[in-house]
Each structure stands twice: as structure tokens, then as C-alpha cells.
Amino acid sequence: MPDGFIEQPKEKLGWRFPRTFWFANGAELFERAAYYGMAIALVVYLTRRVGFSDVHAGYVAACFSSVLYLLPTFTGAMADKIGFRRALMLAFTLLSIGYFTLGAFPNKPMVLVSLAVIMFGGSIVKPVISGTVAKSSDEAHRARAFSIFYQVVNIGSFLGKTVAKPLRTGFTVPYTTLKLELGLEYINFYAATMALCALVLVALFYRDLDSEGTSKTFDDALAGLVKVLGNFRFLALILIVGGFWAIQGQLYATVPKYMLRLQGEGASPEWLANINPLVVVLLVVPITHLVRKVKAENSIGIGLFIIPFTALVIAASPMVQAATGASVRIVGDFSVHPVTLMIAIGIGLQGLAECFLSPKFLEYASKQAPKGEEGLYLGYQHLTTFFAWAFGYAISGHLLDRWCPNPKELPPEVYAQWQTATTTGGTLPEAYAHAHYIWYVFAAIGAAAFLALLVFKFVTGVIERRRGLDGAAG
User: Which of 26, 298, 358, 466 is most open to solvent, judged by the fewest CB atoms within 10 Å of its CB?
Assistant: First the structure.
């Protein structure tokens, strides 16, 4: 039994865990609030403050976001060697410095260094916190322990994105007439403050646990990575499902710039992004129960079938605007811009699709692994996010540059027209007439992923039947 775990009567499960468990989750909440606040504004910050073009900002964000999902495989081994407490203190020190310098020095060389520091620090946190959760609970209570952990992640995500908008646009101090004019760099300062709070929490209250066996050695991790990438069947599945996450990742890669350029500073991409976790939290349990007897590949197929329509809904916003004008009345006097409405619906559908796909993906992925190596392959299922983020952010930069360009790169007279249109709700310049084409591209990617899954199922089915016949003949 883990050190400090409070034993519960066998007939009744409880919710009591050692203090370190709760402090680890508190640190996770601060870290997620920092990360998601920064992430929702990253591509906008890279373009507006740092001076990267859309294309280059896409590549920078692609590298940062994708490698962040790959590094934990290797940093987990380092955390085992130096101990969880030291690893977390190192991680949150790096994150505090990285976020602060990201906001304080908005020049290209320093921003690249800052993102590298954040990337390394953040990659330490995930395996250590999840390892702490596992070590702080016995087998009977592990599901409950991780349910708390996942809720904390969602709460942190919600807080970070909620705070990001008033920091970007400025806000009036409650009960006063004082208006604080802030800006994008203050989102990074906020993230640095959250990371610093996590550092203080760990330094004062976190106590080391036995971390032995929570991850592989560096050599084992590298050998495992090479092995799974050499399995064409597993790699094909990872890339197919990556098509889903590449579209969902546009919440961070495309939506912020898309909304701000079509609607102006009053748009709220940060708040709309919270629709996704809200839908998942509300629906994942009932949908998982609904499809409990459905084959994993069929449930994944439902998710992949839905995901192209999430992009098509957003692409339909010009048709809605043509029918309703610049404002759609929802309830009473409450109305929204057509782009806001259709993006909200699209994001909600993304959350719905995720409820069908995500819980069943691990089950299906395990079936693609050679017998006896299921655990090894499941340890690398995060590669789907690695490929999806690398591709999704990179292509986003090119698509924005082509159909929804940076207003400040337009000729002065066109830029003036854009300013007038986003302020008064008038007609946008011709440069934005085909901005919705971006979403046709992502709809095509989603459709290709769905069709690829059908082909994958057919081919793997043929292979399994042949193996069965060969086995019977032998």
C-alpha cells in the first residue's frame, strides 16, 4: 500500500488520499491554468507582438506544441533519478522563468529560447503528477484518484482560457471606474504567476514518494519509440486518428486569429474554446455508457464521421451572415455574430465527437499491438497528438496567410477598411472574402481520416482472417 494512503473499509470505497496527492493536484491546476491561458493566445502573440508571419508562427507553434507531447517519454526517466519533488521544483522554476521571459522579451531569439524552456519544464510535470496520482492510490481507488486528476485538468484549462480574454483586451476593476489596459504579454505574466504559485506549493507542502518504476530509462524509452514507429499497422492508426486531433487543435491554431480578423478585438475565442471541455465533461460518461457494447473501431468511426462536419459548420458562417446580417438573435435581446455562433456550434460538435472517439481509442490501439506488447504500445499512443499538432499548426499558418491574412500586412487603405468593418460591422475587405475556405480544407482532412479508417479496418480484417486460416491449416 502506498506510503500515507488512508486505508478504507473493503466494503466501501472512499475519497481520502494522502496530503501529497492533493498538493500535487493543486500544482497541476496551477500548471494547466498557466499553459492553457498561454496556449490559446500563443499564435496571436507570435504574430502581433513578436513579428512572426502567419506561416512562421505556425511552424514555431507546431514545434512547441508537438514536441511538448513527445518529451515526457524521456523526462520521466530523469524525474525517477532525481526524485519527484526535485523534478517538480525544477519544472516549475523553468516554467516561471519561461513564461515571464516570453512576455518580457517579445523578440524572436528570446521567444524561441523561452518556448524551449517552457517546453522542457512542462514535459516534466505530466509524468511526475500522473505518477504521484498512481503512487498515492491503491488498485481499488486508482480510478477515483485519476477522475479527480482529470477534473483538476479541466478546471485549470477552463480558468486559464477564461482569464486570457480580459488580460488581452483590458478590463474594468470591479466596483470602480478604473479601466486596466493590458495586452497579450500580460497573459504570459499571468502564466508565470501561476507557475510560481505551483513552485511555492511544491516547495512548502509536497513530499517525495517512491518514484521507482514510474517510467522507463532513457534508453528503454528510445528503444520503445523506435520499435512502435517501425510497426506500420500501429503507425497507420496513429496517423489516421491524428486527423481528428489536427482538426480539434484548430481551437488554438486557427480560431483565435480567424475570429479576431473577421470580428475585431471584441471577439472571444478564449471563451468559446471552453465549450469543448464543457461538452466533454457533461457527455463523456453517458456516451461511454451508451457505446459500452459497441466495437471500439465503430465508436472511433462515429467520432471521425462527425469531425468533418464540425469544420463544415464553421465554413457555413458566410451563408448565415448573408441571411441574418452581422448579428444573430439567440434569446431575447442577446445576439451574437454569425461567425461566433457557427464556431460555437462547431466546437460543441468537436466535443461530442471526442466523447465517441477518445475513450475507445486506447482499447482499439491495444488490439494493433503484437501479443504481449500491448502495454509498450499504449505507452506511445500520445504520438497521435504529436503528429496532429505538428501538422495542424503548420498547415494553419499557411491557410491563414492565404485566406485570412494579417490586417497589418494589407495596404494602408485596405487596413483602414478592415478597421472600419470590424468596428461598425460593415463589409470586410476582399482579402477576407474566402476566409471560410480554411474550414473546407480541414473538413477534407477529416473526411480523409474517416475514409482511411474504413480502409484500415478492411485491410486489417483481411490480414486477421488470413492469419486465422493459416493457423487452422497449421
Answer: 466
pLDDT per residue, tens digit, the chain (474 aa), is 455 555 555 546 667 788 999 999 999 999 999 999 999 999 999 999 999 999 999 999 999 999 999 998 888 888 888 889 999 999 999 999 999 999 999 999 999 999 999 999 999 998 899 888 888 877 777 778 888 888 899 899 999 999 999 999 998 888 888 888 899 999 999 999 999 999 999 999 998 776 555 556 778 888 888 888 888 888 999 999 999 999 999 999 999 999 999 999 999 999 999 999 899 888 988 998 898 889 888 999 999 999 999 999 999 999 999 888 888 888 777 889 999 999 999 999 999 999 999 888 878 887 777 777 777 777 788 899 999 999 999 999 999 999 999 999 999 999 999 999 999 888 999 999 999 999 999 999 999 999 999 999 999 888 878 876 665 555
Answer yes or no: is 274 within a domain: yes
101-112 as b/e: b if 16+ CB within 10 A: bbbeebeeeebe
Q: Which domain holds residue 151?
A: 14-215
Claim to verify: residue 72 and residue 107 sit in the same structural domain = yes
Please tell me whether residues 321 and 391 are part of one structural domain.
Answer: yes
